Amino acid sequence: MASKKNLLERLESGLVIGDGSFVFTMEKRGYVAAGPFTPEAAVLYPDAVRQLHREYLRAGSDVMQTFTFYSSDDKLQFQGVSEDKHRSHALTSIEINDAACDLAREVANEGDALVAGGLSPVPSYREGKGKEFVQEEFRKQCKVFREKDVDFLIGEFFASVEEAEWAIEVMKELKKPVACTMRICTRGDWKDVKPGDCAVRMAKAGADVVGVNCCYEPNMCLETMALMKAGLDGAGLKAHLIAQPVGFHTEEIGTNLSGYAALPDYPFAMETRMINRFDAQKFARKAYELGVRYIGGCCGFEPYHIRAMAEELAQERGKNPPGADMSPGVDGLKVSVMEYVAARANKEYWANLIPAAGRKDAKNLSELPRD
């Protein structure tokens, strides 16, 4: 079997479709506890994790990101979930990350996908325990990623570029490609570092791919990405761009630093805010036109959203997603026995549709707590 192209080779020659939501989707399916949002399901319910990976692979994802979000020892202890009721000992980040790597690799090998070892923020940073302590937490996780020989590393969900830099430095120790994303908007990080400067600092720290993920909807994500791109261009730096927003409409949050978590609907009543597959396609096209070459989603992005993006960019990728065999698009409606449904078998209808909430008491926008 020919060796797979690595991440940077794929980005240099085309684009990469990422995966979508894990903790949010797994919570809906009954395998993640809301609040902690930690990934012990990789050990307790491996079939559920494996299944979601497979759904993303079939949808067209080029990356199987390990289900290791919030899987650091200090985070597991901080949330009080490290004691597994089904086992006789506490679950550690090493045990969870080990299982998550095996699941991601198993499914990646069923197609042409890469495995990304994922890091996320640790409580120790916000507790002020210092660079040495924080980086040691990251190294515990990366030890498994080194042993499991993941294809690249991805840091995500950082609110402070300083913590992102510390994570990047540790990830670079593995001599693998490194991507890093922040949960910021056009306002910048939690310490008032602007998006362009965040991108520059991540690139200088050694990240090969930089961008944003989570917290904000696709439009805000793209505005922030444009600022990051401008920052990199202005500094004369080259780094690939990655964009993975939430799959919800969140216009009213604007530049609230808490992102979509500030919404009164979060986390249990977000369904009426979900973007549809055509929204996902529009985002993918705009991201590509902006120069983003690693395009995926975060919370709220389901497999069908990823498939929609993979189909939208099929020509640029030179291939359709595996699930295209059962995805005829709007043309499939032509054979409907209901004439009014068959009449919707055209792209213009769906491009101009303004979806309804289906309930009279639905709000257009919510009132938010003060930022």
In short:
With 371 residues, the chain is an alpha/beta fold. Helices cover 41% and strands 9% of the residues. It has an 8-stranded parallel β-sheet.
* Integer average pLDDT: 94
Could you estimate the helical fraction of the residues in percent?
Answer: 40-55%
Given as residue ranges, the uncertain stretches (5+ residues, pLDDT < 50) are: none
Radius of gyration, CA atoms, in whole angstroms: 20 Å
Question: Can you give keywords for this protein?
Answer:
eight-stranded parallel sheet, 371 residues, alpha/beta
Would you spell out the secondary-structure blueprint of this structure?
Blueprint: H1 7-13, E1 16-17, H2 23-28, H3 41-44, H4 46-59, E2 63-65, H5 73-78, H6 93-108, E3 114-119, H7 123-126, H8 131-147, E4 152-158, H9 161-172, E5 178-182, H10 195-205, E6 209-213, H11 218-235, E7 240-244, H12 277-290, E8 294-295, H13 303-312, H14 314-317, H15 339-342, H16 347-352
Structure description:
With 371 residues, the chain is an alpha/beta fold. The protein contains 16 helices and eight strands. The chain has helices at 7-13, 23-28, 41-44, 46-59, 73-78, 93-108, 123-126, 131-147, 161-172, 195-205, 218-235, 277-290, 303-312, 314-317, 339-342, 347-352, and strands at residues 16-17, 63-65, 114-119, 152-158, 178-182, 209-213, 240-244, 294-295. The chain has an eight-stranded parallel β-sheet. The termini are far apart. The model has no long low-confidence stretch (mean pLDDT 94).
